[in-house]
Amino acid sequence: MTFTSPLIDRFGRQVDYVRLSVTDRCDFRCVYCMSEEMQFLPRESILSLEEIGRVAQSFVELGVSKIRLTGGEPLVRRDLMELVDFIGTLGLRDFAMTTNGSQLPRYAKDLYAAGLQRLNISLDSLHPEKFKRITRTGRLEQVIAGIDAAQAAGFRGIKLNAVIMQGRNEDEILDLVEFALSKQLEISFIEEMPLGEVSDHRRGETFYSSDQVREVIETRYPLVPCSSQTAGPSRYFRLQLDSARRSTLSSTRIGFISPHSHNFCGDCNRVRVTVEGRLLLCLGNEHSLDLRPLLRDHPRDNQPLKEAIMAAMDLKPERHHFTNDGEVQVVRLMNMTGG
Fold first, then answer.
1. What is the mean pLDDT of the chain?
2. How would you label 301-310 residue by residue, b for 16+ Cβ within 10 Å and e otherwise?
């Protein structure tokens, strides 16, 4: 299938990638993502799976070729497999999910059979107690079992995501690289996103830049820029391994997602839809459009929805401006934004 998207913003960027949040709920309470005591959306405020499916179909009909399901944690949404089955029939070039991995032992085989192609799995620590402190409720062994289940199910497009925080887990950078190598997986290191006020820490005290992460990795492995990149915000490098390690390990790609230190807005091709139906035109701005009334006022007609999506491209800002000085620019937390 050839995709040509009419979704072009005022700066000439073509949007061909949408991240659909299916829930604001999660079985973890990661310290950088949400406050410890969260108030989640009432059921009547969230889109039904059928409505999310209509949004997905409308975007595909508008030329979107890549959809990622996000949360919260997508796999805590009841009957989610119905939506995965439906989106899996839309002929996407890339169909992915971001997950904390906790539910993959149960769902990995079904997700793969339904046509999901890739998984991004969050993994911020390899020490059980530290993992528990960062996630508040998570169990490391459950996530490792989820990674193993995904590989056993047949997934080859698996990437680990690690949010690195000063004073929390910056001492594990090399351990995480070695783990990715041992599993023959890609890994991306992410600068903490300053979305909403979290109760665990001040954003500035935990900020650890991609350049700092890269310096740590290069104490052991030189990094070579990759000529090919993905549709997402990661910038990739390959590790230079010695001949002995090359014979036993894959050439793992290392990605860096750097919303602070290396702004990636110039070629942004992404929008997000929250589980309450708000079309977010930018991760770091409040520019948005409420799609829920269009879905509910026109339950059998997607044309008004598609026209609104096309018109909303004019709302997409040129870039975001993140800071770590304590000023909250975006009040929604990451679980409300969609990963």
1. 87
2. ebeebbebbe
